[in-house]
Amino acid sequence: MFKRGYDARNKRNIQLIYTLDITLTDSDLTNDLLVQFESDNHVKATPDTSYKYVGAAPEHLTERPVVIGFGPCGLLAALTLAQMGFKPIIIERGNEVRQRTKDTFGFWRQRKLNTESNVQFGEGGAGTFSDGKLYSQVKDPNHYGRKVMTEFVKAGAPEEILFVSKPHIGTYKLVTMVEKMRAEIIALGGEVRFATRVDDLHITDSKVTGVTLNTGETLKTNHVVLAVGHSARDTFQMIYDKGVYVEAKPFSIGFRIEHKQSTIDQARFGDNAGNEILGAADYKLVHHCKNGRSVYSFCMCPGGTVVAAASEGRVVTNGMSQYSRNERNANSAIVVGIDPEQDYPNHPLLVSNYKDN
Ligand SMILES: Cc1cc2nc3c(=O)[nH]c(=O)nc-3n(C[C@H](O)[C@H](O)[C@H](O)COP(=O)(O)OP(=O)(O)OC[C@H]3O[C@@H](n4cnc5c(N)ncnc54)[C@H](O)[C@@H]3O)c2cc1C
User: Fold this and answer.
1) Structural domains for the chain
2) Cα 120 to averaged position of ligand 1 atoms, centre (Å)
3) pLDDT (tens digit, 9 = 90+) per residue, 288-310?
4) Does residue 285 contact residue 331 with C-beta atoms inside 8 Å?
5) What pTM did the predictor assign?
């Protein structure tokens, strides 16, 4: 099975859609069929989804790359570099995932926020305590996403993430997976330093030459992967002050709503609500306002929970779930797009803009 999805636009006639890989022993017949069905989008040659490394480390490695941040981006970058032989050094300001889990529950249950180790910061990054939804609307003609999914399966994710149309993993499984991925990086010669922050970036003649850590130590390197996510305001300010080009991206802001999962299942699947193959139903809504802005639902979490997701003294909410998605409620963000050109044209760091003015 290459892909499995469903079409529930008509809840009285829900269609399960399968894309199958078929191997014929007769290669001439295979070619004949492909020619015969050339104009039919339903029959295609199986794409090559294997990952091609862009290079390999030299035998005598003189310099190791530094990866800043151990969220999904840093984790996958470090793993790929390690597999290519580059023995990366990873610097992560938060704690390793077990201690981080305690820090995060300390915030949720006792309101004790550790600003360096929380829902946003620590091993696995903002992705660890999450719904673990693994799909986006990004086009992926080279199947790079397949590499990510394959690594996740190797680390213990359910194999179905390779073929279901809306794969998801859930928090508990993610915690053990990031540990396994860390173990592979270390086995390949990489090094991960937790509870360590990069506070300075050294740049000479427009080239990176090293990083200084909050411990005072400086690591010399000409290759840095900056994978610090979206919440490290101090790090963004530091690189901006260093003259690194920083550009604002459009983003969205809003709030979360929560309602009974059974209401959503009934609305989407009708009599088929609760069917095991369909699982917990999701939804996507959009409203185009007269003023040109759009309000839309985002990151809908079927059968999950709304969680406090602050890394500093502000109110931040997000949604997470377990693999089973069998909690009572569904939740979703309702957000409106913010356009840098229109809404904060003067400064790429919005908060500095507010502080300055
Ligand atoms: C509760 C929750 C649920 C979510 N659910 C989903 C979902 O279902 N599907 C989905 O696609 N996305 C989800 N997201 C969003 C997703 O987690 C993020 O988009 C993703 O984690 C971004 O990955 P990243 O590696 O770029 O950054 P991050 O995950 O933010 O990782 C950055 C890392 O860098 C570290 N760091 C920052 N500054 C420094 C420094 N100076 N020195 C050292 N380390 C530093 C941080 O501690 C952090 O660990 C969710 C997020 C949250 C919080």
Assistant:
1) 3-38 (no CATH), 66-241 (3.50.50.60), 251-356 (no CATH)
2) 6
3) 999 889 999 999 999 999 999 99
4) no
5) 0.92
